[in-house]
Design a protein that fits this description.
The chain is an all-alpha fold. It has a single domain, classed as Serine Threonine Protein Phosphatase 5, Tetratricopeptide repeat (Alpha Horseshoe), CATH 1.25.40. 74% of the residues lie in helices and 0% in strands. It has helices at 2-14, 17-30, 35-47, 51-64, 69-81, 85-97, 114-128. Helix 1 (2-14) runs antiparallel to helix 2, helix 2 packs antiparallel against helix 3 (35-47) and helix 3 (35-47) packs parallel to helix 5. The radius of gyration is 13 Å and the shape is globular.
Length: 129
């Protein structure tokens, strides 16, 4: 859990996404069955624009915890941004079935300027963990 917390702090507090990614990878090395670590890794990769890698991380988070509404939602965001809309709809529907409350993005990926990424990341992490 300490490495997950470090990943959150590095991304949300300082915007150090490469360092945050390394912290999540360390958490996964210690506990490869941590859905929260995989989900956090997916978040950082999504923010960095590495959508294929983010999608794979969300897939692993969902494999480990199929009830992880946040992973389903952000998988939908990534898939929508990749124009894989039927798959995105499935992921969004699943997140809604599990009680996710954030609305679906209307225009593909949620795009944030660099000043707001830290606050967005902090908010999403408070929901995820």
């Amino acid at each position: 859990m300490a490495w997950i917390n470090a990943g959150i702090a590095l991304a949300s507090g300082w915007g150090k996404f490469d360092d945050s990614l390394r912290a999540y990878e360390k958490a996964i090395e210690i506990d490869p069955r941590s859905a929260n670590a995989w989900n956090g890794k997916g978040e950082v990769l999504r923010i960095q624009g590495k959508y294929d890698e983010a999608n794979k991380a969300y897939d692993k988070a969902i494999e480990l915890n199929p009830q992880n509404a946040a992973a389903w939602y952000f998988k939908g965001v990534v898939l929508q941004g990749m124009n894989r809309n039927p798959e995105a709809d499935f992921a969004f529907n699943k997140s809604e079935e599990l009680g996710w409350l954030l609305p679906r993005p209307k225009f593909g990926l949620i795009n944030l300027n660099s000043a707001s990424i830290g606050n967005w990341y902090k908010y999403t992490c408070s929901i995820i963990i």
